[in-house]
Amino acid sequence: MAYVIDGKKISQEIKDELKEQVEALKKDGKEIALAVIQVGTDPASSVYVGNKKKACAYIGIRSESYELPETVVQEELISLIERLNQDDKINGILVQLPLPEHIDEDAVIKAISPAKDVDGFHPESVGALMIGQQGFLPCTPAGIIQLLKRSDIEIAGKECVVIGRSNIVGKPMAVLLLRENGTVTVTHSKTKDLKAVCKRADILVAAVGKPRMITREYVKDGATVIDVGIHRNAENKLCGDVDYEDVFPIAGAITPVPGGVGPMTIAMLMNNCVSGALH
Predict the structure, then answer these.
(1) Catalytic status, residue 146
(2) Inter-residue contact 127 to 171 (CB < 8 Å)
(3) Which superfamily does 139-261 belong to?
(4) In this predicted model, what pLDDT tens digit does every residue of 144-203 receive, in sequence order?
(5) Which of 115, 123, 261, 276 has the smallest C-beta neighbourhood within 10 Å, fewest atoms?
(6) SS3 (DSSP) at 247
(7) 38, 116, 119, 243: the active-site residue
(8) Which whole-number Å values give the CA distances from 48 to 51, 123, 169, 215, 228, in the listed order?
(9) Residues 16-19: contacts with CB under 8 Å, at least 24 apart
(10) Which residues pair with 163 in a beta bridge?
């Protein structure tokens, strides 16, 4: 029977710690502000943006919303970002992805000043992560490291397997596990005998984007299983990349969906906003 890693509880601990830090900063006359830009009205994006605003309000971070129409031209979006880059009162800039097809996501990410890139997506942030220098960490992988550490799950010396190689989760996840002295294998759609590779893992991170793909055949007895996926099944219920019911009896520890990795992503975004104001 697996130990259930409670992302809601751990994210709440982090938000409470940040709330104290923000109160202390306010006493010194320093206010923290996050600018959130949303293009269009994608329902999932609207939910994420709403959750981010709620977290800001709880911690004491001022949030400024910029809701742009789906039809906005790229130049207009980039000129807004450039204006916010120059604004000393703004500590972090977040552009909610995905963007409409006529806008080049890369160009938008590159337009954000690395000093305000609280998502950790700018090439300079990614480069700093890669060589272990100071910079913003991408929120989901950083949140997973916190889940493991705060659940007393040792990473050093452990066999870690990451399923997925996206720029947002898979690749940075591998680098952060390596930084914690894990022995890391990154797998993907071209990996031969994926089940056998995954079955070696002491820590298995599933970021594959396929609902309930990871069954017990992929999981070693007693392994820690971290599920990054979020999908709606046929009954419209949330589920992850891991078949939770199938894996739960054999895993040593597991994150649920919802209530596992998701809340941590927002907690680490808040953490980036606060640390950005401190540096």
Answers:
(1) no
(2) no
(3) NAD(P)-binding Rossmann-like Domain (3.40.50.720)
(4) 999 999 999 999 999 999 999 999 999 999 999 999 999 999 999 999 999 999 999 999
(5) 123
(6) helix
(7) 119
(8) 5, 24, 17, 28, 15
(9) 18/59, 18/267, 18/270, 18/271, 18/274, 19/58, 19/59, 19/60
(10) 187, 206
pLDDT tens for each residue of 232-272: 888 888 999 999 999 999 999 999 999 999 999 999 999 99
Per the annotation, the verdict on 52 as an active-site residue is: yes
Note if 27 is an active site residue.
no
Tell the residue number behind the tokens 């914690």, with chain if given: 180
Annotated catalytic residue, options 52, 116, 171, 220:
52
Eight-state DSSP code of residue 216: G
Bridge partners, 94 (sequence order): 36
User: Which are the contacts of 114, defined by CB distance < 8 A and separation ≥ 6?
Assistant: 122, 124, 125, 135, 136
* Location of structure tokens 């071209």: 190
d(CA 229, CA 214) in angstroms, rounded, equals 11
Residue 60, phi-psi category: left (phi > 0), alpha (psi -120 to 50), beta (remainder)? left
Please give the distance of CA 255 from its chain centroid, rounded to a whole number. Answer: 14
Q: Which of 237, 277, 274, 273 is nearest to 118 (CA)?
A: 273
Contacts of 213 (CB under 8 A, 6+ apart): 206, 241, 242, 243
Match domain 31-113 to its CATH number in 3.50.30.80, 3.40.50.10860, 3.40.630.30, 3.30.365.10: 3.40.50.10860
Q: Where are the domains of the chain?
A: 31-113, 139-261
pTM of the predicted protein model: 0.95
The strand order across the sheet containing 203-206 reads 3-4, 253-254, 224-227, 203-206, 159-163, 183-187
